[in-house]
Amino acid sequence: MSEQDLATRREEARRAMEGDERLAARLKRDQIIGNRRIEAQRAMESPTHRARREARERAVRESAGLVEAQTAVERATREQANKLVTEAKAKAERLANQQQAAERARVNASRQATTEISQLKNMPTHLSSIRTLKTDMGEAVKQGKSLAGIVIQKGQSIINQTVVPDRRPTHNLLSLILILFFLGAIAGGGTLLYRQWQINSPATLPGTATSTPASASFFSTDHQADINTTSKTVDVLRSEIRQASAGALTAGAIDELTFSKNGVALNFRAWQTLLELHFPDNLIKNAESVFMFGFYHGKTRQEPFIILKVKSAERTYSELLAWEDKLPTVWNALIGKPPVSLATTTLASPSGGSSFHDQLIQNLNTRLIEGAGVTQPALYGLLDANTIILTQTRAAFLEILTRFRTGR
Asked: How many other C-beta atoms are found inside a 10 Å radius of the C-beta of residue 101?
């Protein structure tokens, strides 16, 4: 045995006989010695060796990390596969249970049907005998009656057993029709009575004022007149308007006309409906109840004007812009058609001349139609942010604007 083997055995025997404390102390001492050796080796190694060593250690760490990542991926794949297998098994079990339940239901239904069939087979069948000529003759012989009498007797019994149809639905339908007719007659009569009452009522027209006057003086005028519209036709009212405008007032004067029905002033909607003046629907909806109507007395003619308070001047102005070609027809209705001598010179437009054009008056935008070929001039514009004026000439507009600004 060599010296090396003897030394190895002695070391093994010594380690086998040492206690836990000595073993822990020796292991700690060996660890310290090993760490010192490693530090000494690293202190003496060159930069080249250090770089190689660090590269090897880095490669070892990265390979260990890659192995761990691969292990984690494999573990996740196995878990996912196991999950899919488990779900497939559960789904297969549920499908098998459903099939078994359906099969049991079919078997039970088949058994129940078999039982019912066997019960029906065992039940006695009761069929009424068929009535024939032979049976009638037999009964006639037994009862000592004639065959005709037996047949009549059977027929009478069948008739008596037949259910007589109930005729009450027909009677009920007729009664319902009569009731509906009667109610319709009552409703029609009531409607007629209501309309007759409306004709004699202050609230005949839509939107008629009931407490405050609908006409409003937005500025001072030289003369005022009220026209009572109760029980008057359109032609009569228009004639009274023309007569009122024919007064011999001085040039530049303004005459105001108000309208009432049974002592109650009319608002703009009721007034234009009563006189059959066709304004745009949206303009009527956008206009307030108060308005002013009258005449400006020019040098040669009386020029009507209408002043409206509106909820939205922009919306009203756009409605008037689309409707402006029909404005001269309103003046035709209020002051009459132009003279025949002038009407012969009219052009194709509704006003009898050229179309409207923009005109700036006192820094206010207006739309105007006038000229030698115009039979019924017209003008409209804004007096302020929510006041619209409809008239005929710039002279009327300027006089009304001056009084309107002074009166505020």
From this structure: 10
Which residues lie across from 303 on neighbouring strands?
296
Closest CA to 364 of 384, 390, 337: 384
- Quote the CA–CA distance of 375 and 337 in Å, as a whole number: 9
Query: What would the two tokens of residue 359 be?
Result: 């005109």
Q: Which residue has the higher pLDDT, 122 or 256?
A: 256
Output the pLDDT for position 187. Answer: 76
Dist. CA 176–CA 105, nearest whole Å: 55
**What's the confidence (pLDDT) of residue 342?**
39
Per-residue pLDDT, averaged over 160-166, amounts to 51
Contact residues for 284 (Cβ-Cβ < 8 A; gap 6+): 268, 269, 272
| CA dist., res. 400 & res. 86, Å (int) | 95
357-361 and 223-228 as β-strands: parallel, antiparallel, unpaired? unpaired
Residues 301 and 270 sit within 8 Å (Cβ to Cβ): no
Q: Is the pTM of this model over 0.85?
A: no
Residue with the larger pLDDT of the pair 98 and 161 = 98
Q: Find the length of the chain.
A: 408
Helices 234-245 and 327-335 pack at an angle, to 10 degrees, of 80
Greatest extent of the chain over all pairs of C-alpha atoms, in Å: 163
For the chain, state the CA radius of gyration.
58
**CA dist., res. 116 & res. 397, Å (int):** 103
